Amino acid sequence: MSQQGIAAPQQLRELVDKIVARNLDNREIWYVISLGFETTNLPMIEKAISAMPAELNVKNQTTLVETLNRVVNGAFDRSFRFKVINTVIKTYLKCPSPDMSKICECYVLTDNAESAADTITDLISRNLSTRSYQIAFDLYETASQGFLDRVLRRFEQQEQPADAKSMEKVHSILKGHETVKAYLDFYVRHNHTDSVLMEEIKENIRTASAHNALLISNGLMQYGTTCDDFLRNNLSWVSKATNWNKFNAVASLGLIHHGQEASAMKVLDPYLPKESVEGFGFKEGGAMLAYGLIHAKHGDATAMSTLAQWLKTAENEPVRHGACLGFGIAGLGSSSVSGYEKIREVLQRDEAVSGESAGIAMGLIMAGNLNQEVFNELKQYTVDTQHDKTQRGIRTGLACASFGLQGDAEPYITEAIGAKSNPMLRSTGICMLSMAYAGTGSPDVVRRLLEKVATDPNLDVKRYATIGIGFVLSKDPNTCLSYVSMLTEHFNGHVRYGAAMALGIACAGTGNMEAIGLIEPMISDKEGFVRKGALLSLSLIMCQQTDYTCPKVNGFRKQLLKKIGEKNEDSLVKFGAIIAQGLLDIGGQNAAVSLHNSDGQPDMGSMVGMMCFLHGWFWHSMHFFIALAAKPSCLVMVNENLKIPVLDYVCHANSQKFAYPPRAESKKDKDIKKVETVVLSITGKKNALKKAAAAEEKKRREAAAAAALHAAAQSSSSASGGAAAGAAGEDEKMEVDQQGKPKKEKAPEKDTKPIHRLCNPARVIPAQRNLITISDPRSYSPMKPLYKGGIIVSDRIDKEREEKLVSEVVAQVSLPASSSNAELKPPQPFEINLTDY
């Protein structure tokens, strides 16, 4: 009743008060807290927590941890959640050994950067540096750039701790240097992209849209691997890209070299503007987007100032378009007012293409920090402008800015959805509603979205409302299935497309067989865009799945190749199939699309990246943004010096259950046929005579055997009869054998061992994490459970034992083969004495 704003009757309140008082007298505190959650009664929860004794025992600590887990993972209002968290933390900090990682996770949720910084400083002062490093890594993974900047500023205001080296390492972690370096090493070391598959797809491409799709797909497949061999080996083919395809070809380098920040300018130098822009600036604009993708979610001062300078000097729309998108993705979640104002200047130029990117970039910068001024400004511009591209860009931007705000965004959402005469504003309100409550599982929000699916006449509104269900229920795939299952058979194609994408978003990386069963019939839908959506959705669901975890994944891979190769298939479907192939193998088959972090909370970068990816319906360049949702499937153990030591993990399962998918066969191997031996006429005659002689000999032996059997029967000698029969059997068996028949080669023996070992840093897919242990538990003590994955800091137990470190891999940083700097140098002069020859 409290949720609906209805006052409870007096008798009911008295009854509840008696129950609460009795439970508190019996020290049944968890029952009272649970009742408070069910009724969203904050005073009841506060009363239960205050009733705990001054000296908290193990049971009380467990109750507090369970309370934090319940409020963090439950579908509660944002303000209620903040108040409960603050109440619990005040008491929890009094525990003898509180879980500081859990507390800092709560600080991120309540946007309390100052307390998070104080916690790290306190740990360092107590000689718990290793634990502070782990918290810093977790903060970089879960917090926004704006939050991290405030933590670093708080450090500057504090007195320098005695252990300055530890604080220096914390600074390096919070700035992202250590995480970026570790993930780059992992992607390069474990790259398993199927180059044969890429060549096979290239051979089946006949249109400009498919050419564009493969360039984008190649960038996704090679995300973070620094391996651009496919582009180098097919320069003449790549050079066929024109206009915006050229823009995407260059921008794909940003995905390939993601994280290679130190050499970003060297990699992109041939494409960046020099004194003047060549042609229309597609190449230069793509290079600026690539620069932003290399620094995605990690735009330091140097990168942002470089992008701002390019934005200021841009001379035409493609260059401004690339600079805006690069600026937005590098400054994601920074909430920088100066950056927002620089992008606003581009929006006010009232250009269609650059206006679209400016609207998106403004939302990326203000992600999770929408305010009244920003909303009013962008809403008014949506009404005033005549460019539908700009309106769509602002729609995506406002959705990104609304992420995670829940009830705080309701005034803006209500105003946008209430615009009955403006379908663009209504669809904007739906996108804002989906992102504001993303991952909350709120049934009320789902009902509002379903109502729009049923009643709104605009197709964009219907499509985004259906997709929004996937965002809201992304933490609860089974509930999403129950809501969306009927919509997969809706008469409206846009609703069917939205249902497919909603299932893909909610079940991303899970291999959910029920969801796959609902989507598979849509591959044969009469509408091309629905078939495309089904392929994209299935690729999201089956990403990082094997035959063991999802039996249909290999069949789906074959189906994608079939769709790409069919001559009569719609070009839109082929485009989707090629992008789907890139999603399946994203990050060199070492990453998975996931919308939540390791703690199970909605991840800003992933949610925003998925929303921008959906904008690919209108603009192909937005498909690059799905890389924001890619999480490396790795387990990287680092020591107290942030170096990667040599150690082994044990996976308690057969190695083939989680192995890479089998590589595609090259077309040459498929076309090779057995060459029949040519038989000459004279050889045929000789063979015929041999066969005739063999037949006569066979008849003679059969007659002799029959006579011997008859004689044996008459003499009643079973022994001799048995021997003769045996001899006859041997003769017949010898005649059956065919000389010259090729022997079958034995297939390679499969690994049947119940366990296998992995080396640090290891590729560990999500389904494998619960099966991992350290081979030698006496070597290192990790700061958090291994099933969390990612980067885990560990303490060395045996300090006297010699520690070996993993050698670093060298990333590929060579210049493009087409550049003038790549020209081969002539050899040094030399002399040859010909008298020796």
Can you describe this structure?
With 837 residues, this protein is mainly α. Among the domains are: 10-185; 640-658 and 752-802, no CATH class. Helix content is 57%, strand content 4%. The chain has 39 helices and 9 strands. Strands 6-3-9-8 form a 4-stranded mixed sheet, covered by helices on one side. Strands 5-4-7 form a 3-stranded antiparallel sheet, with no helix packed on it. Strands 1-2 form a two-stranded antiparallel ribbon. Helix 19 (301-313) runs antiparallel to helix 20 (317-330) and helix 29 runs antiparallel to helix 30 (493-506). The longest helix is centred in the last third of the chain and has 35 residues, at 681-715. The radius of gyration is 33 Å and the shape is globular. The relative contact order is 0.08. Residues 8-191 form the 26S proteasome non-ATPase regulatory subunit 1/RPN2 N-terminal domain. It holds the Pfam family RPN2_C. InterPro entries: 26S_Psome_Rpn2, ARM-like, ARM-type_fold, Proteasome/cyclosome_rpt, PSMD1_RPN2_N, RPN2_C. It comes from Caenorhabditis briggsae.
